[in-house]
Amino acid sequence: MNKKWMIIGAILLVLILAGSSCVGRYNQLVTVNESVTTAWAQVENVLQRRNDLIPNLVNTVKGYAAQEQKVFIDVTEARAKVGGATTVPEKVEANNQLTAALGRLLLVVERYPDLKSNQNFLALQDELAGTENRIAVERMRYNEAVKAYNVFVRRFPNNLLAGIFGYSRENVYFKAEEGAKEAPEVDFGMTPQGPAD
Predict the structure, then answer these.
(1) Rounded CA gap, 31 and 25, in Å?
(2) Which of 23, 39, 106, 152 has the fewest Cβ atoms surrounding its Cβ within 10 A?
(3) Are 47 and 82 in contact (CB under 8 A)?
(4) Interatomic CA distance for residues 74 and 68, integer angstroms
């Protein structure tokens, strides 16, 4: 009789330990998944800050470089794409295009010495530079959160639990655009002029 109760007790102990382990792993799965969501929210927060700065920056530069219409159109279109993007991959792609367009805009600024000393432009440029730094930091944190989540979801036996509850690997990382190491070239075939009246 005692042997029977010992076996039942051992089975119950194993079931309790297995259940506790599953609960702990599930809670950790939820935590790393929420970390990805939180990190992405921070990326969107700083991207929105940059998006809000762009109209002021473009208007300031327009006063000096009225003939550089293509750059303004590129920036405006890229900004509109960011606003219209709905999924994470679309947002990543749209923001990469906006970053490239802003790079071309700032390259245009180099042609206008008066603009570079304009106080409004300098303030906007400082704000934009600070925002770009924040974006870089938040992108790095997002990539780290995605990596931690992916490692957790792919490890055994976590992959079994993740499969049961419908958690799958995240495939969206921020990566540098192809050609990002090369300086952008702007050539409109026009001679730079002074500030517009």
Answers:
(1) 10
(2) 23
(3) yes
(4) 10
CA-wise closest residue to 54 among 62, 65, 42: 62
Burial (0-12, 13-18, 19+ Cβ within 10 Å), 58: middle
| pLDDT value, residue 179 | 52
Query: If we measure between CA atoms, which residue out of 143, 121, 146, 135 comes closest to residue 65?
Result: 121
**Residue 109 parent element (H or E):** helix 88-109
d(CA 125, CA 119): 10
CB atoms under 10 Å from CB of 73, counted, come to 11
Residue bearing tokens 């702990």 = 24
Q: What is the pLDDT of residue 61?
A: 81
How far is Cα of residue 93 from the mean position of the Cα atoms in its chain? 10
Whole-prediction pTM: 0.69
